[in-house]
Every structure is written in C-alpha cells, then in structure tokens.
Amino acid sequence: MMQENTMYLTQLLVGKSNRYKNENMTPRVKALLDQISSGKLQTDMARVLHHIKNKPYTTLTELERKLNMKHQTASARVSDLLDLGLIEEQGTKKSHHSFQTYFKFQPSISKQEYNARKRKKTKYQHWLKKGLSQFEEFINPSLKHELSQTK
Asked: pTM, whole model, 2 decimals?
C-alpha cells in the first residue's frame, strides 16, 4: 500500500499520472483528455483544449491565430469546451474596440461537473426566456404557465 501511494505521488509530480480517470467522466470528456495525454490531437476541440491547457489565459483571437482556425470554428469549439466544463472564463481585457475573454483549463473533475451544470442551467434559462416570448403561439397554455413557474 505504501509503495502504491509513493508510486502514485511520483507519477503525479512527474506528470505521468492519468488523474483524469473517473467513473463519472463522460466518454466524450475521457476521449478528449486521452487525445491530449497521448499527444494525438485528432479533433479541433482537442487542439483548442491542448492550447488552453498549456497556455492559460488564452483569448479566442489568440486561438484563431495560433491554431490557424476560422473565428466560427474556434468559437464553436470554445463553446463546446465551456459546455463540458473543461475550461472556464477568467476575466476580460480591452483590445482595440472590443473586449477579449480569457480562458483557462479546469483540472478538477468536480469543478468541471459544476461548471457544466451551471452552463446548462444558464442556457436553459436563456432558452426559456426567449422561447416563451418568441414562440408563444406554439406553446400549450398550461405548459407555458408551468414553464413560467420554473424561472
């Protein structure tokens, strides 16, 4: 037991531990993290995550430039990673005439799960607000009333 703990701590310090193995981790997140740990970045999402993980406080503009991606592609992959909770927004900076958001990797699985749940709830509330007003004629009145109570 002592030898296993020592080996684990050594691997952790050297960076060879696969600390991302967790029964609660979705297959999508596990596959993404496996790509990064193996160095075989097969998807745009893996490339974006790898860059943010290695260069914390990266902006969308930097991702576009460094990874040679179109704005729409980089933005969509950042949104996907935010949905999964793997990255977090870490403030903004003023750049020319607009603000740039910084992103950083979130290594804690529990915080990833919290971030993903929080983002999903925010998206739901946005959809609910927009949906109830924009698609009012398509929503059953009793369902509309029930949905308006969940805000």
From this structure: 0.74
